Amino acid sequence: MNEISMKLSQYLLKKDVVSSWSNVHSFLNQGKNSGFIYDNLFRNAMYQVGDLWEQNTITVADEHLATATCELVLAKYHMEKVSNCLNKHKIPPRALFFCVEGEEHNLGLKMAASLFEEFGWDVYDLGSNLPVDYAEYSIKKWNPEVVCISISVRHHLSKLQETLQRLEKVNPALTIIVGSRFHQEESFLSCCTPGTLIAQDATFLFEWLENYQKETGRVDKGVLL
């Protein structure tokens, strides 16, 4: 972990929202984009917290407090970015977000959803632990162009495989993006279908969204103010 994320992790563990936000905002003022901030600050800071918990340096209560503090700062960052966005289209592209059934860790999902909103997408964030039946129902109801799925616990991989196979049957033209810290592991890759896009980090999503708006013209290049 880099020095940047270590500093933020210390603020989060102390429930220091003011210092946490000041730390994040300083990089925003430097012109860093959300891909950089989500990967190098928020994600790595929470990885550091997780490592401390695994080493028994902090308790599970400390980890939960840091997570709750991180969610507060993420919410503030989200409002800061989205309030500066202008979607000039009456019908923006739509994206659906959820964690695979059984998966309760949704910080990565929240960052991904916020990133899509920055680019002017109509976002439906269904949160953690969504049964596949309801994922199918949601796709039929809202007809998204993109579905983003998050998974961070290995024993949910079999459920990921089932989810991908069933969703592709609902809409074969659907773009499905899966984010996971296991993105380089064979056990994860073997669960993904050939058409699955794998997002190794927020920077990948940022670049994908940039390319999407250039190729389709669905969202104006000047949407980010």
TrEMBL record:
SUPFAM superfamilies associated with the record: Cobalamin (vitamin B12)-binding domain
Question: Which Pfam families would you find in this protein's record?
Answer: B12-binding (PF02310), B12-binding_2 (PF02607)
Domain (B12-binding) ranges = 92-219
| Name of the protein in its database record | B12-binding domain-containing protein
